[in-house]
Amino acid sequence: MSGELNIRRAEASDYAAVRGLADALAAHIEEPPPPLTLDRYVAFYIREHAPVHLFVAQLGDRVVGMIAWILTHELYSAQAGIYISDIAVHADARRQGVGRALMTKAKEWAFDHGVTKLGWDVWRHNAQAMQFYQRLGATIDREAVPHLLLLTND
Known about the structure:
This protein has a single domain, classed as Gcn5-related N-acetyltransferase (GNAT) (Aminopeptidase, 3-Layer(aba) Sandwich), CATH 3.40.630.30. The termini are far apart. The protein is globular and about 45 Å long. 31% of the residues lie in helices and 27% in strands. A hairpin with a 4-residue loop joins strand 3 and strand 4 (79-89). The model has no long low-confidence stretch (mean pLDDT 92). By secondary structure, the chain is α+β, with helices and mostly antiparallel strands.
């Protein structure tokens, strides 16, 4: 890979690249490809006041990574946080600082917006990702226990 690494806000024209990264991430965690349409991508990530912040890593003229997060706020502590929903780096761009640059962008954005912590979930079989986060200084949150409520039409 050659070229300068640039982290920037995603655009509508990045849809195919982001979709490819999302498909690869889903396959890696043994999930089916996401049903992400262009309209849904624009609504959730691109339009003004979109609920999810999405940044891409561009190496030369190619999108090789992405990071997406939402802003949260806890009333009991009055602290803002970021929940990172997705981070992915194309397989041939790994170990070149792309993931670290994406996490740095999230930390910079957080700092600029008064956020005091970043959080995310890691697939339990993704030891490589866990090691990466540990190298960044992240620790496992042993206080919180994740819960999930699936919504159905029932």
